[in-house]
Amino acid sequence: MYENGHEELLDITGTLNAADIPDAGHVVQLVTGSKVTEIGNYCFNSSSSLKTVVLSDSVTTLGQHAFHYCSKLENVSFGNKLSVIRGYAFQNATSLKTVVLPASLTTMADTAFTGCTRIRKVTIPQAVCSSKLSLKFPNSY
User: Cβ(33)–Cβ(11) under 8 Å?
Assistant: First the structure.
């Protein structure tokens, strides 16, 4: 489902693509349904109004540039089965301040959060810390 005034998008099975949301630039809140398994490449690229993303437990993959240049994106809630975050997924989401990664994460591109200069807190579950996953965030030392 996505919220944009009174609009709702339901029953997308599999990958949610930009073509599924012709008015993506005006979406303020995205809440994925239980049939969505992936947010496709460039799905919400440069969506100037998007502030909140809530991914259901069915979402396992975030595609390249999925939320690239979503400069108003403040809140992202990852489902507990998300395993892959591809390159530049959140590049230049400059309003994002806190990231809480799910324990299910197995693959995250080094560039996933490039340009997210306001991130101040990252919560990484022990299961992810003990894996060989390389985690890079802007402003981290």
Answer: yes
- Give residue-wise pLDDT tens across range 7-26: 444 458 999 998 888 888 88
Q: For residues 57 and 38, is the Cβ–Cβ distance under 8 A?
A: no
Domain membership flag for residue 141: no
* Number of domains into which the chain is organized: 1
Which parts of the chain sit beneath pLDDT 70?
1-11, 130-141
Examine residue 60 and state whether it is found in any structural domain, yes or no.
Answer: yes
Give the separation between CA 51 and CA 93, rounded to whole angstroms.
10
Asked whether the beta carbons of 35 and 57 are under 8 A apart, the reply is no
Q: What is the pLDDT of residue 135?
A: 64
State the virtual CA torsion across 19, 106, 139, 94 in degrees, nearest 10: 20
Phi-psi region of 99 (alpha: psi -120 to 50; beta: other; left: phi over 0): beta
